[in-house]
Every structure is written in C-alpha cells, then in structure tokens.
Amino acid sequence: MDQDQARRWLAVALDEARAGRDEGGVPIGAALFGAGGELLGRGHNRRVQDGDPSAHAETAAFRDAGRQRSYRGTTMVTTLSPCWYCSGLVRQFGISRVVVGEDRTFRGGQEWLAAHGVEVLVLDDPGCAELMRTFIAAHPALWNEDIGHE
Hints:
Elements: H1 3-22, E1 29-33, E2 39-44, H2 47-50, H3 57-65, E3 75-80, H4 84-93, E4 97-102, H5 110-115, E5 119-122, H6 126-138, H7 140-146
Parallel strand pairs: 3-4, 4-5
Antiparallel strand pairs: 1-2, 1-3
C-alpha cells in the first residue's frame, strides 16, 4: 500500500476522531475506502454519545458505507489499532487492508489480521498518538471502559 495515499486517507479518519472528541466521546475515527480509492463510509466512536457499546469507529464507517456486494479490495483506515470486535468485522466481511494510525496506545487484533491474510500498515502517526494521549490523561476511567478494563 502506498504510504502517501494511506496518510491522505488517514486524514479522513483523524477528522472523524476529532469530531468524536468534540462531541464528548472517545476520539477514534475510521473510514472505509473502495478498491478504486473512493470513500465508501466514515465514522467515529459513538459509544458515549449513543450509549451503545458496539458503536466503535470502524463499525460506524462500515455502516455508513452501506451494503456492498463485496468488500474485496477495500481498505479500513482507523486512527487506532482495531480491537478484537472490529478486527472480527474486518475478517467477517473480507476487508483486504487495514491502515492503522497508531498502535502504541492500544494494540488490538492487527497481528491476528495479518496472520489471516489481511494487509496491515501501521503509520505511527504522531497526531493520532497525541490525540489519544491527551484523551486518556483527561478521561482514564472512560478509556478503561472503552477497552474493557475496569
């Protein structure tokens, strides 16, 4: 995957993460791009805003994309390494690639995805990392709830 293209796509997910933060939620954003590079869907974590534990950024982008005949060749771009729930979504629907903004804050199922044929590119983006560091420092209990820690 071309890193310059991946960084342009990450900008869409990062805009979504900031929107989530501005709404008082967890600042994680995602976007789903088609095989031809077209934006299919975008979204951000809405667990807090909607009171819905399944409203992760990747699922929001997936839902926003609507029904696709096939997900072969598509790329899920996310500001943070996908959790196991979202990694399962990628595998279930055959999404071909995952671009991760950063994985220092949280490491989900990206190695599992790669072991099962999903191309994974980690960009180690400082903007994504700073957004999460700032959020976690301000809201540690909410962060622990989001990742399933007490």
